[in-house]
Amino acid sequence: MTNPLIEQGDLLAFDNLAPSCVTPAVRVLIAEVNEALSRVTDKATPATWQDVVLPLHKAEERLFRAWGAVGHLMSVVDSKDWREVYEANLQDVTLLSMNLAQNEKLFAKYKAIRESGAFATLTAEQKRVIDHTLRDFRLSGAELPEEEKAALKAIAQETAELSQHFSQNILDATDAFTLDFENAAPLAGIPQSALDLYRARAKAAGKNGYRIGLTAPDYLPVMQYAQNRELRHTLHKAYATRASDLGPAERDNGPIIERLLVLRAKEAELLGFKNYAELSLATKMAESPEAVIAFLTDMAKRARPYGCRDVKELEDYARDTLGIDPLLSWDRAYASEKLREARYCFNEEQVRSYFPLPKVLSGLFGLAEKLFGIRITPAKASVWHPDVRFFHVTDKDGHVIARFYADLYARAGKRSGAWMDSARDREKLEDGSIRTPVAYLVCNFTPPVDDNPSFLTHREVETIFHEFGHGLQHMLTRVDVADLSGINGVEWDAVEMPSQFMENWTWNYETLASLSEQKDTKEPLSRELFDKMLAAKNFQSGLFCLRQLEFALFDMRIHTEKNPNYAQILHDVRNLVSVTPYEEYDRFAQSFAHIFAGGYAAGYYSYKWAEVLSADAFSAFEETGLFNAETARRWRDEVLATGGSRDAIESFKAFRGRAPKIDALMRHSGLADPI
After folding, report:
1. Hey, which of 179, 228, 366, 550 has its CA 20 to 30 A from 469?
2. Any residues with CB less than 8 A from the CB of 10 and at least 6 apart, and which?
3. Which pLDDT score is estimated for 668?
4. Which residue segment(s) compose the domain that 448 sits in?
5. Partner residues linked to 422 by β-bridges
6. Is the pLDDT of residue 675 over 80?
7. In Å, how far are 84, 351, 382, 481 from 216, measured between CA atoms?
8. CATH number where 553 lies
């Protein structure tokens, strides 16, 4: 049997991809990279794009395409075998990456290309790759003495291992918790859709009754609807203490956080930065940690009065109407849902009945066709789970320009959250042909139960639009160089702009009508219900904004301050920003995977930073008409298509005709209205 990770083909053969494939493939592919490295760094090899950059890129692309697939499978079909083989090879892949990033001979070749007369003949994209690579060499310690290089390598290896363990601890803690009920009496108030899911979970475990876990489709219905206050408390405590010192010691992420912060500070010191935040921002739009903290603090001051108003309204309603006093952490989602229903005469479950996932996808794809002239159609491919679907993206002439996998349902062994990732980048090959991009689109929606499709809340509709926005930037790129195509080379604090931009369409009635179909009547979302939703759009927006700012400030401070005590800093940030108390047992940091296991370390502010850009960008559509063909064309041409081929601020200005303003974000969020 051939190894799909070596014989990669057009698409990976996931149905033939087993853990046993990984180690042999990694050894072969690492050897290919090292062989290419030896050739391109030979003294006799001319310092040119064709002789140095391309041969090494070919070998690297094969390795990291394979390793990316392994990492992807670790996120969606985790098992003991996959985990063991991933961890067994992680050190070798990390070490190779650092060896490449620090190789003095390779660094010299790139400098020679930059200083040669032939540099002027390169395309603008090729020049940018050379400049970015030289920057990255320096940020990886290529100019440091050997002892310090070795220290950076050791840091990179340990960091990769710790981040992986952090993520695994969260997954294991989430999967380990279950509550079983013989009958539905303790589950009063919870919607039937969730009860059906709990019953299916129990049946799958060989039990009668109902089983509740901690994945989002399990957890959220309890917190929002369960009349049983003790049940809400039980689930809240279990969720808030995942992977912490209040659980099994082997799954405690606290020591991992402490060690990661030490390693990151040391990395920054070795590279000549005052702190890790400075190092992180070296490749981002923001000028300095101080500028980011000032931005976040200013937004917190703007949002705080609205947050205080939201809390008072919620506490008053909970006390006077629900008889809940004091209002505690496990009560807030429940009281919020009741207040929303009372004030606006609808609830999220009512709205959910209008959004069967197949219809949502059809409407989303229709919107993409309307705006960008593309078509999205089902196709066949080898997949890693029966739930996964595969699609072709074609242009107006019927040519396939991109493809993507959609893995949309929650299940055991699958990492929580939602994300888009690259399975393959767009690139112009030496023969002039275009290698089309391929994306992974992953969510964790409630799976279908019996013969019923998955129905989404409006928030989940926003989620799939968000991730599809990332996918559009990846798939609609026209950049010919892989290192700059799609989201590659885009500053991290701008990468959320296209995704957040797409969320705005979920608040347009025409769009929602096209992707809605009531469960029983088959009617689209009514204008009356939409108007209620719109009136409630900014319900508790002050609280939500402050929550995000709390995350971002915590992230920046732990990566800016010397010898940070992360628990104390979280406490201090909450005292500064939050308008709601937290339980003593709350261990939020231990499950903050974005910054401890993802790519958002000293970068979580990017969500708010990019939100300014996306809201201002969408305001251009508000000014010209939401379906204005020329505005849509400019958005595709100036933002989606350009990827990392130029600075993100230049792409924004090319689309908007000016620098970004915060006004649209404050207006969209209801934070400009009088209190």
Report:
1. 550
2. none
3. 86
4. 357-535+607-668
5. 439
6. no
7. 27, 18, 28, 38
8. 1.10.1370.10
- Do 597 and 586 share a structural domain? yes
Query: Pick from 212, 241, 270: which residue ends a domain?
Result: 241
Average pLDDT on 638-642 reads 98
More confident residue, 665 or 131: 131
Total domains, the chain: 4
**Dihedral in degrees, nearest 10, Cα atoms 23, 25, 31, 34:** -100
Contact 335, 322 (CB under 8 A): yes
Question: Which tens digits make up the pLDDT trace of 564-576?
Answer: 999 999 999 999 9
> What SS3 state is found at 68?
helix
Residues 6+ positions from 662 with CB-CB distance below 8 Å: 612, 616
Distance between CA atoms of 500 and 462, rounded to whole angstroms? 9
Q: CA 83 to CA 165: how far, in whole Å?
A: 10
pTM of the model: 0.94
Could you identify the residue written with the tokens 């003294």?
43
- One domain for residues 417 and 475: yes
Out of 604, 629, 650, pick the residue that ends a domain: 604
User: What is the tens place of the pLDDT at every residue in 128-149?
Assistant: 999 999 999 999 999 999 999 9
Residue type, 448: P
Quick one: pLDDT band at residue 43, thresholds 50, 70, 90? very high
- Per-residue model confidence (pLDDT) at position 621: 97
Same domain, 421 and 510: yes
C-beta atoms surrounding 376 within 10 Å:
21
Do both 321 and 417 map to the same domain?
no
Within a domain: 674: no
Q: Which of 546, 544, 550, 602 is nearest to 572 (CA)?
A: 550
Residue at 166 is within a domain = no
pLDDT in tens, 240-288: 999 999 999 999 999 999 999 999 999 999 999 999 999 999 999 999 9
User: Of these residues, 348, 349, 467, 638, which one is catalytic?
Assistant: 467
Q: How far apart are CA 107 and CA 100, in angstroms?
A: 9
Cis peptide before 437 (omega within 30 of 0): no
418-432 burial string, b = 16+ CB within 10 Å, else e?
A: bbbbbbbbbbbeeee
Residue 467 is among the residues annotated as catalytic for this protein: yes
Give every strand in the sheet of 419-424, ordered side by side: 375-379, 389-394, 400-409, 438-445, 419-424
669: confidence class by pLDDT, cuts 50, 70, 90? confident
CB neighbour class for 508 (10 Å; exposed up to 12, middle 13-18, buried from 19): middle
Per-residue pLDDT tens over the stretch 389-402: 999 999 999 999 99
Q: Can you give the length of the chain in residues?
A: 675
In angstroms, rounded to a whole number, what is the distance separating the alpha carbons of residues 504 and 499?
10
Q: How many helices (H) and strands (E) does the chain have?
A: 26, 9
